[in-house]
Amino acid sequence: MVDVFDDFYRNKRVLITGHTGFKGSWLAIWLNELGAEVVGVSLDPNSERDNFVLSNIGKKIKADIRADIRDGKRMKEIFEEYQPEIVFHLAAQPLVRLSYSIPAETYETNVMGTIQVMEAIRNTRSVKVAVMITTDKCYDNNEQGQGFVETDPFGGYDPYSSSKGACEIAIQSWRRSFFNPADYGKKHTVSIASVRAGNVIGGGDWALDRIIPDCIRALEADKVIDIRSPKAIRPWEHVLEPLSGYMLLASKMWNEPTTYCEGWNFGPEADCVSTVWEVASEIVKNYGRGELKDSSDPNSVHEANFLMLNINKVKTRLGWHPRMNIHQCVDLVVDWYKKYRTEDVYDLCVEEIERFLSVR
Ligand SMILES: NC(=O)c1ccc[n+]([C@@H]2O[C@H](COP(=O)([O-])OP(=O)(O)OC[C@H]3O[C@@H](n4cnc5c(N)ncnc54)[C@H](O)[C@@H]3O)[C@@H](O)[C@H]2O)c1
């Protein structure tokens, strides 16, 4: 595989939390292909059709561990045993609508879980770089039609969004208190950053109440696709876009630990900011069949209408930019769902990473 990170990840000890999930499984596959020693820490995958299960990535990495990130003692033991150098923290309860049903658990996992991971990092001298994954929903959303910049205030209406806003505050506090760049090399040797992506889409996601899995489930069952919030505007991006950003950022933090330990938006270009209806229509077009139905419900729980990220900072300071437009992105997403039943899914993912990297 083409290595756009110049062999940086070869033999690096990388710990991923949330590797059984949608984004984490892709990250584990990519890092595995680059020769990293990957240790994954997560709960069980949700279904037999998850990318993690079908790709068999759990059997290809150094260690595939089941543990709860809320268990601080267990986190410290795992970090102590595997001595990771780089940590990507993705484990979370990531769903807005579910967070209305299990708000306390959402907070326990997202906020206390993140704190337990940071405490394990603090306790383990091998860790040099930590990339903490939050979300575009961590910002206080005034629905003003402008993209958030990294210095905008944190907030969040629903329990999920606000738990990620709280995560950002905790990460900022741990950075100031324990991983302060001014004390680097004297009191600690950790560079910690937080990263915020948009609405990530890609093969192998079967989560509830997400537009792509909803579309595919309906298409496979020959049912009409119900669109809950047709007019909601989201920054859509293929999963490989933010992952490429997280990986680039970690490599830069490794070389210049005090320069990049901040918050970063890894969103799409403006042409990928579109309505749920537009994206669902693109899915149907690509899949070759399907019918959409406007199922807006005025009594539904609150979800943001407008979300967009300003990505000038990552472009100018990291030299990162999104590769694909919305058509290329949806094309790659649908490709996975058309092939997952008949092809080797690990090879399919590697081929998709190569296709992604071939786009300039
Ligand atoms: N998918 C998106 O559109 C999107 C957008 C922005 C940010 N994010 C963030 O990216 C991360 C990954 O999201 P995803 O879509 O892959 O989610 P996912 O639900 O597919 O994966 C979540 C992962 O976290 C693990 N996990 C959950 N609770 C845990 C616990 N208590 N202990 C240990 N592991 C636990 C699960 O086992 C799984 O591996 C999350 O932090 C999410 O908030 C996702």
CATH architecture: 3-Layer(aba) Sandwich
Output the radius of gyration. Answer: 19 Å
Q: Order of strands in the sheet with the most strands?
A: 3-2-1-4-5-6-10
Which ligands accompany this protein? Answer: nicotinamide-adenine-dinucleotide
Number of domains: 1
Q: What does the largest sheet look like?
A: 7 strands, parallel
Beta strand count: 12
Shape: globular
- Helical run tally: 13
Regions with pLDDT < 50 over 5+ consecutive residues? none
Write the CATH homologous superfamily.
NAD(P)-binding Rossmann-like Domain
Q: Give the proportion of residues in helices.
A: 40-55%
Instruction: Provide the structure class.
Output: alpha/beta
Distance between the termini: 16 Å
Under CATH, the topology is which? Answer: Rossmann fold
Fold topology:
Blueprint: E1 13-17, H1 22-33, E2 37-42, H2 51-55, H3 57-60, E3 63-66, H4 72-82, E4 86-89, H5 96-101, H6 103-123, E5 129-133, H7 159-177, E6 191-197, E7 199-201, H8 211-220, E8 225-227, E9 233-238, H9 240-255, E10 263-266, E11 273-275, H10 276-287, E12 292-294, H11 312-318, H12 326-339, H13 345-358
Parallel strand pairs: 1-2, 1-4, 2-3, 4-5, 5-6, 6-10, 7-9, 8-12
Antiparallel strand pairs: 9-11
The protein binds nicotinamide-adenine-dinucleotide.
Task: Please tag this protein with its features.
360 residues; alpha/beta; Rossmann fold; binds nicotinamide-adenine-dinucleotide; 7-stranded parallel beta sheet; 3-stranded mixed beta sheet; 13 helices
